[in-house]
Amino acid sequence: MTASHLRAKNPGTCGGSAAHDGACRPVHPTARPTVRRFVPALALLVGAVASLLLVADAFPQVAGGRPAMLRTNPRIDEIRLEVELFQQASVDPRTGQVTVNGQQLSNLTTTPTYQASGVSIGVPVLVRTSWCDTDFSKYGARATVDGRDIALDPAKVFVRTAGSAEAMLRYELPFDRGAAENVLVRGIYQVQRWRLSVDEQAAATVTWPREWPKGMERFLKAEYGIDPANARVKSVAEGATKGGPRAVTPYVAARNAVLAIAPRWRITNSATSVYGQKGALRGIAFSDGTPWGIEAGGGMPVELAATCVAALRSIGVPSRIVYCLEHKNDTTGRERKGLERRGGSMQFHFMCEFFVPDIGWIPFDPLVIRQQSTNAGAGAVKGFANVDDIEKLLPIAYQLVPEGYAMADRYALWGWKGGVEANADRAVSRIGFDDSGRGSGKVPQMPAPVSDEAP
């Protein structure tokens, strides 16, 4: 499988299917977005903290006094999530490069880094997942263009997607002189993250539903980079269970399918992320022009996650990738403090989930499962359902770029639009976050949600 199989797809919407082994692929980094105008719905602030006070009786997964998925040990953090567009380097003006001095452009004879009347930047956020709730009741937003603050109304920046756990921070930024050299957007909000424990025995007893709940259709269909109709993926997933997936419950069928793929997957490069100047986290790492997938025997971590999701969808189990950010394990203290502004202390992480009725979205980590034996039998599999340190992950999105937006120089979960013309020789972007602890949550334990509908 080669990169040519995906180049005809639209990189800006993550839609459509790709006839390959179910993974994601970047397109040329200079691809430019098209201008689209729309009238946003009234942005509603979400008081996610209220969801923390819901009683167990409100959750269908509670049986016999103990939830099948239980959240414990809550920790609250303040998150500062940033996206920045900037120049690759400060260049001596004698070379003809543009330099910025405050709001002034010192050299008007060269092509600016970003040309447009303005830009719309969409940064995805997830209101809640099995292990994380996001509180936007005290949301803060900031944006600057070439060092000049842009007035923002936080109530209009935060846009919720109805009937979904997805939301977006939308920044509408004018370029007063029709160009810009540096654009920075920052959202400040709080999250509460839990350790998550799954009663695997209870989950394994839930039978196939007559029909999946509303909203599951999306997570059964093909999307950009994930193709459940791929013959090889479907064959492996269906063949993982004797008698076929319907001979067992959805949980067991999903477990068998993932075990048929992940432990046999050869990682061509363990990197999940691509970095730029000063450690800037630029985007997700994909295979670059080399074959990957089940037929090739492996690929990059994101491609393993996408293949596992495609496999579960192929046997009729709703599944998705939860694209996350996390701090690197090998950067602590002084190292982390020096790197985190640009993103060098963090990386992408690809958690996966599948849906079981009356239980909810059950997580699994393909990279951890890859280290397990293919002969796990009926015993517990490390990284499947019960995932160590899941509470350290910051969930961001279910797709590579927000709907209606296009990637900038690389897939990095956020997107832009507005007809921006970027000087490919020096334009570069980054995404990053830092977090500050705000103590323990007030509710020591609670059931995990069983749907994406947030209260």
Quick take:
The chain has 455 residues and is mainly beta. Helix content is 12%, strand content 32%.
Write up this protein.
The protein has helices at 154-157, 200-203, 231-239, 250-261, 301-314, 333-339, 366-369; strands at 62-63, 66-67, 69-87, 100-101, 104-105, 114-115, 118-126, 132-145, 148-149, 158-160, 166-174, 179-180, 183-198, 266-267, 273-275, 281-284, 298-299, 319-327, 346-356, 360-364, 394-397, 415-417, 421-422, 427-440, 445-447. The chain is mainly beta and 455 residues long. The chain has one domain (3-90, 100-447). The strands form eight sheets. Strands 3, 8, 9, 13, 24 and 25 form a six-stranded antiparallel β-sheet that branches. α3 (231-239) packs across α4, α3 (231-239) crosses α5 (301-314) and α4 runs antiparallel to α5. Residues 1-60, 91-109 and 330-343 have low confidence and may be disordered.
Describe the secondary structure blueprint for this structure.
Elements: E1 62-63, E2 66-67, E3 69-87, E4 100-101, E5 104-105, E6 114-115, E7 118-126, E8 132-145, E9 148-149, H1 154-157, E10 158-160, E11 166-174, E12 179-180, E13 183-198, H2 200-203, H3 231-239, H4 250-261, E14 266-267, E15 273-275, E16 281-284, E17 298-299, H5 301-314, E18 319-327, H6 333-339, E19 346-356, E20 360-364, H7 366-369, E21 394-397, E22 415-417, E23 421-422, E24 427-440, E25 445-447
